[in-house]
Structure formats: C-alpha cells, structure tokens
Amino acid sequence: MRYWDEHMECMERGTLQEIQLKRLVETVKRVYTSVPYYRKKMQELGLIPEDVKDLSDLQKLPFTTKQDLRDNYPYGLFAVPLSEIVRIHASSGTTGKPTVVGYTKHDIGIWSEVMARTLVAAGADKHSFVQIAYGYGLFTGGLGVHYGAERIGASVIPISSGNTKRQIQLMVDFGTTLLACTPSYALYLAETMEEMGIDKSQLKLKSGVFGAEPWSENMRKEIESKLNIKAYDIYGLSEIIGPGVAFECEYQCGMHINEDHFLPEIINPETGEVLGEGEYGELVFTTITKEGLPLIRYRTRDITALHYDRCKCGRTLVRMEKVIGRTDDMIIIRGVNVFPSQIESVLLEMGEVEPHYQLIVDRVNNLDVLEVLVEVSERMFSDEVKKLEQLEKKITKAIEDTLGISVKVRLVEPKTIERSEGKAKRVIDKRKI
Amino acid sequence: MYVKQISVFLENKSGRLAEVTSILGKNNIDISALSIADTTDFGILRLIVNKPDLALQVLKENGFTVSATDVIAIAVEDKPGGLAKVLDILYKNDIGIEYMYAFVGKITDEALVILKVENGDYAVNVLKENNVRILSANEVYSL
C-alpha cells in the first residue's frame, strides 16, 4: 500500500485547485457569519465573503496570529456552538495563556485521515504495530497519531511518553513495527536499548514518524543506524490540526502538505507580501475544511519554502522543506535572512566544532557586520597558529557558502559563551537603528 | 628525547596570561620557558614547566583549552653563529621548523632552544649525528 487516498494525494493540480477554491469560499462565509472576530476584521478591511472568487483572493484576507488566539481565550474563535465540540487540546502555555483548539466530530475525522496518509507514507498498513510514544493528553501528538493509526486498521500500542525501559521491553515483546515519538526521544530509546543490552536485531521495527521538534539530517542518520529503521519527518501544529499537516514520503525530499485541507502560503515575515515557489519565508495556513476552529491565514512563524514540481512518489501535494528557523529568531543582515540554526548546522557538519556559538551583529559605517564566535574545543585545538587559522578560514568559508554573505569568525575560549538553562541566547544585536 | 610542552589557547584579552601563571604558581609549578604566538584575535601560549602532567590537569580544571606536544630541546654554543650552525644542519637535511623559541638556562656557556619540527624522530637522529646536544626531559624540567 503506497497511498492512503490515491485520489486526493495524486490529483491533477487544476482539479485540486477547484476543490480548494470551493472549500475556501465556504470557509470564509462560515467565519464571517459565525466568528465575530473575523467579521469585524474583514469589515475593517472593507471585505465581504463574496470578494473571494479566486484562490489568489486569499491574499486580501487578514492574517491570524498566536496572539489573536490568546486574545480570544479560550473559545472566542470557535465557529460552532460548544455543544458541537467533541475534543479540546491546548498548548502548554509556557509563554502566556495557552492556545486552545477545539474539534468537531467531523474535524476529528479529517485529522484521522491526514494522519492515516502520514502513516501509510511511512510504510504502515493494517498489519503494522504502531507504538505511540508521544505524550497523550492536551498535547496533540499522542491522540493525533492514535486516531490515524486506528483509521488504517493498524494495531495501536498507546504507551504515551516516558517509562523508557518498559517501552523497549514492549517494543521487543509486542513486535512493534512503527515508532512514533519526538526524534530526541527516539535517540534516547536507542541509547537505553544499548545500556539494557538489547540489540536492534531483536526488534521488528521498520520505520518511525518523528516530529514536534526541529531535527537535523545528521540526527536522522543517527536514528536510522541505531534503530535500523527508516526515519520520517512529520509536521503539524495544534492550531491547524495537530500532527498530519505535512508528511514525508519514501523519497524524503520535503514534506507533502495535505493541501486539500490546509492551504499554504509563504510570506515575507516583515511585509506580509506573498512569495513565490522556492523562496524562503514564513509559512501561513488557511484551514479549508475545519469546522470547530477554522483559521484564516494563520502565521506559523516557521520559515520554509514550497516546491510544486511532481514528486517521484506520484503525489502532487506540494512539498515544504524542513523548517529552517523561526521568525522569532531571524536576523536580517544586509537584506539577507539569517537563522542561527543555519550556522549551527554548518558547525555540526564540520564535525570538529562543538556547537557553542554566538552571533554578534553590529553596524559599522552604515554596513551590517556579522561576527560568529565559536568556542575552541580540545579536539580542534592545535599548538600551531597556522592550523588554527586554517580552521578559522574553513569555518568562515562554510558559513559564507551557506548564508551568501561575508562573516567574521572569531575563535574564543571554551565556556566563554553564556550558557542558559532553556533556549540559548544565540544572537546579540548591537545595531542602533 | 622529547620534552613535553603545554600549549594553551588564549583569547587576546587582558588578564588571561596572568591567570594562567597564577594557577601554575598556586600549584607549585615552575615555568622554565614560555613563548606566545599571537594573531589579532587569539594567541597560543607555549610553556615548558617542571610538572607538565599536573599543569595540563590544573589548567583543564580551570576551563582552559590545553594540549601537550612533544618538542625538542637543544643546547647550542652561546657565541655568534652558534644557532646558525644548528639551523644549517636542519636546512641541509630538509627539516622544516614549525616554530622555535630560545630560553635562558642556568648553564652559562650554552643557549637553550626549543624546536617543533615536522618529523621529530628524523630530526633527533640528524641532530645526534651532527653532535648537537639534545636535552633530556628531566634535564629541562629541573632547570
């Protein structure tokens, strides 16, 4: 089984666009009549639902942000009476009020469908044993994958997260074939397996779907070799539906967006202008089938690019690249968007550098300058100036090749870059603009 | 035949060298030679001390990036042309010098030189064949 829904996944673009337009028009009508917030926003822009006649009219509509969800906490943006809501999920709320999302019975059905597509693309079928080690609860990961796995008729092992040794024992005893969890937890499982003296040959594991946090290609290779599986990236966010917004196929050249349900755009995060195919910008989604919490042009803050050329797998669904960063940590240097994560991956690829680094942006003679501080580790240290200067040049060139702008790399002593318990402070912007 | 040299990565900012020497001092480690190679941004401090293993350990414990390298210590005649004679031997035998520095010993008629060369074993043989005095590690550490 290669596809879950071949008809929708491999449809000609023209036909897909007709479906998208019909659903978009319905959605806009629905939010205009049922969500006072959207009616007010559209009225402010002088828009009525009839103004949306074409897919390109999407650009006329207002954006929705996480802040809008918070301002309307908890149910202000719901488009159906609360009696129609059958499930509520929410974010943890660590950075403010939690964002609350609600699903109708129909919404849960859509979610199950898109997750079924995701799991089938990762090699699952009704004979599979799917171990779900994502957390169950208000977080969408666990139950999202759960309903998708049930939809395809796989045997679900709903173990949730934690209890690592038991996870591994059950994986062996129950013959798990597909693992679903965060990529970092997959690595932790592999390490614990080694400690327990369980060899990967004792597992029946064939593949895994990993998401909910950013991960690199190097991490993919490590998971694949340590667990002897094929590791698939998945993408989702609770505001749009949860996991299953986009998924990788066996060719792993970007994640197919389920765009018969979620209409993607890429915008310039500064100006809001819509960008073309292959251009990097902020990913924006409009849900076009959801009933409970339809969102118009929701800004994900994730930076990626879209590709519409046909994939070798036969799916016509647009592909999004791995998220390269977030608008919250993007810096613009001489007009070029730079993400700390890009520099981190350069340093990791070089292999000889610990990824302790900091970016210092300054403006000298009206020109932005980027200085990259890199801590010298014992592994890269040499008693010869020549070798350290070569290393400095090598790092400089690798970063310049990736970013396309000139940088100054400065080697610094270990532990001089500030460590933080949570998110590392990667950027110091000294520009006074 | 080799002497263990301690190399320390230092950023070019004030007080760093003082910190290294103070850590060594507190641990009763005696410095017999030192040199600094520097660029605009950083420097490499090279040290010959009486207890290289301990020096390596305490500097690491204090968060410095440190490594130990084998270098050759030789004694040359302390008179005009003394060093030139040795360098000529190395040149004629095609031995490239990566870096060198001289230091003062307590022996009056000889100048002491630390050499880091590309092919240490070969260099040691060539120097021996040419009757250049190579100092043993113990000899250097006790200077």
UniProtKB/TrEMBL annotation, chain A:
InterPro entries found in the cross-reference section: Adenylate-forming_Reductase, AMP-bd_C_sf, AMP-dep_Lig_C, AMP-dep_synth/lig_dom, ANL_N_sf, PA_CoA_ligase
CDD domains, per the entry: PaaK (cd05913)
EC number per UniProt: 6.2.1.30
Occurrences of domain AMP-dependent ligase C-terminal (ranges): 335-431
Keyword Ligase: yes
Chain coiled-coil ranges: 374-401
UniProt entry keywords in alphabetical sequence: Coiled coil, Ligase, Nucleotide-binding
Pfam families registered for this protein in UniProt: AMP-binding, AMP-binding_C_2
UniProt signal peptide: none
Catalytic activity field: 2-phenylacetate + ATP + CoA = phenylacetyl-CoA + AMP + diphosphate
Gene3D superfamilies in the cross-refs: 3.30.300.30, N-terminal domain of ligase-like
Domain AMP-dependent synthetase/ligase: 81-285
Pathway: Aromatic compound metabolism; phenylacetate degradation
Gene Ontology MF, one: phenylacetate-CoA ligase activity
PANTHER family according to UniProt: PHENYLACETATE-COENZYME A LIGASE
Assembly and oligomerization: Monomer.
Biological role: Catalyzes the activation of phenylacetic acid (PA) to phenylacetyl-CoA (PA-CoA).
Name used for this protein in its record: Phenylacetate-coenzyme A ligase
Species per Swiss-Prot/TrEMBL record: Caldicellulosiruptor changbaiensis
TrEMBL record, chain B:
Pfam families reported in the protein's UniProt record: ACT_8 (PF19571)
Lineage top rank: taxon: Bacteria
Ranges for domain ACT: 5-92
The name this protein goes by in its record: ACT domain-containing protein
Gene source species: Caldicellulosiruptor changbaiensis
